[in-house]
Design goal:
Elements: E1 3-9, H1 15-26, E2 31-34, E3 42-49, H2 56-59, E4 64-72, H3 93-101, H4 105-110, E5 114-118, E6 127-128, E7 131-132, H5 133-138, E8 148-158, E9 168-175, H6 181-192, E10 196-206, E11 209-210, H7 217-222, E12 242-244, H8 247-254, E13 259-260, E14 271-275, E15 281-288, E16 293-299
Parallel strand pairs: 3-10, 12-14
Antiparallel strand pairs: 1-3, 2-3, 4-9, 4-10, 5-8, 6-7, 8-9, 10-11, 13-16, 14-15, 15-16
C-alpha cells in the first residue's frame, strides 16, 4: 500500500495523533506526516503511506498557504489563543480598534512580503541540540534562537467575517516551508504597536495539495476501502523534471547505476524524477552536470 493521503486535520489533536489514527484506518504502520500543524490549527496535512514515506524530504520543502485570524491587543506566551497573556499594552478594545482603523494595511503587509529573517518561537517543534523547543518552553526555559530566512510570496487581507472585527483581521499567506504564522502575527502586532496573537489558523495548501482535495476523519471512516483515497505517490514530486527509462535500464537504476542525459539538460544538483515507460516512479535522482548523468538518490519499488 503506497501513496499519499490528504487529511483535513481537525482542531484539538496533534499531527502525531492524525498519523496514529490513519495507521489504524489503513492497517499499516508505514505512515508519516509532512509539515507539522499545531493542535489548534486545522487543514491540509499530507500523509505519506508505504514507500511514499521515502519522499518526505521533498514534500516537506513545498510552499504552504494559510488563512489566519490575528487578534490584536496583547501577545501570548505561545503566540496563539492557547497561551497565557504576556505582553499587554493596556489598551481598551476601543483603543485597539482606533489604532487598527488608522493602519494603512497595504504599507504594513508589504513589509512582510518577500524574503525576511524570522526567529522561531519557543513553542515550536524545532529542535536545537536535539531538544524540541516546546519541551523546553513548558519547563519555563527560554534559549537563544538564530533567525532563519523565510519567504512570504503572498500576503493579503481577507474579508472580515469574524465576531469582533474591531480588533482583529483575517489574512491569507503563501510562504516557504518553515515559516511560522504565529511569529508573523506577533511581528505585525509589534510593528503597529498594539500586540497580537493568532486565534485561528487553517492550512489551505501544501505544495500542490489543496484543502478541497482533503478528506475528514468521518469521511475516511465511512469508506468501505480507505485505500481508495490514496493519491499515487508520483504526485508528491510531479513538479520535478523527469527522465523516462527504457525497460532494460529500470533494474540497473534500482541497483544504483546512473543514467546518461544530454549535456545541459538539467542544472547541477537538480532533483529529477526517474520514471519507467509506464510513467511509474522508479527513483529520485540528482543531476551531475559535469558528467551529464542523473544519479539515483532514493530508489522506489
Amino acid at each position: 500500500m503506497d501513496g499519499i493521503l490528504i487529511i483535513d486535520k481537525p482542531a484539538g489533536i496533534t499531527s502525531h495523533d492524525v498519523v496514529a489514527r490513519v495507521r489504524r484506518n489503513l492497517r499499516t504502520k508505514r505512515v508519516g506526516h509532512t509539515g507539522t500543524l499545531d493542535p489548534f490549527a486545522t487543514g491540509v496535512l499530507v500523509l505519506l503511506v508505504g514507500a511514499a514515506t521515502r519522499l518526505a524530504q521533498f514534500v516537506d520543502k513545498d510552499e504552504k498557504e494559510y488563512e489566519a485570524t490575528i487578534q490584536f491587543g496583547f501577545e501570548t506566551d505561545t503566540g496563539d489563543r492557547t497561551g497565557l497573556r504576556i505582553e499587554d499594552p493596556g489598551l481598551r478594545i476601543e483603543e485597539v480598534g482606533d489604532a487598527l482603523h488608522a493602519v494603512k494595511w497595504d504599507d504594513v503587509l508589504s513589509k512582510f512580503r518577500g524574503e525576511l529573517m524570522q526567529t522561531p518561537p519557543m513553542y515550536s517543534a524545532k529542535k536545537i541540540d536535539g531538544k524540541k523547543l516546546y519541551e523546553l518552553a513548558r519547563k519555563g526555559i527560554e534559549i537563544e534562537r538564530e533567525p532563519v530566512k523565510v519567504k512570504i510570496s503572498a500576503l493579503e487581507l481577507l474579508p472580515n467575517e469574524i465576531r469582533d472585527p474591531q480588533s482583529a483581521i483575517r489574512i491569507r499567506v503563501s510562504c516557504s516551508a518553515g515559516t511560522y504564522i504565529r511569529t508573523l502575527a506577533e511581528d505585525i502586532g509589534r510593528l503597529i504597536g498594539v500586540g497580537a496573537h493568532l486565534t485561528q489558523l487553517r492550512r489551505t495548501r501544501a505544495g500542490r495539495f489543496r484543502v478541497d482535495e482533503a478528506i475528514t476523519f468521518p469521511e475516511l471512516e465511512d469508506l468501505q476501502d480507505p485505500k481508495d483515497r490514496l493519491v499515487p505517490m508520483e504526485e508528491a514530486v510531479s513538479h520535478m523534471p523527469a527522465i523516462v527509462l527504457p525497460d532494460d535500464r529500470v533494474a540497473k537504476t534500482r541497483n544504483g547505476l546512473s543514467t546518461r542525459v544530454e549535456s545541459g539538460q538539467f542544472p547541477d544538483g537538480a532533483t529529477v524524477r526517474i520514471l519507467d515507460e509506464r510513467s511509474q516512479l522508479v527513483a529520485i535522482g540528482i543531476a551531475r552536470s559535469a558528467e551529464d548523468i542523473v544519479q539515483p538518490k532514493i530508489v522506489l519499488g
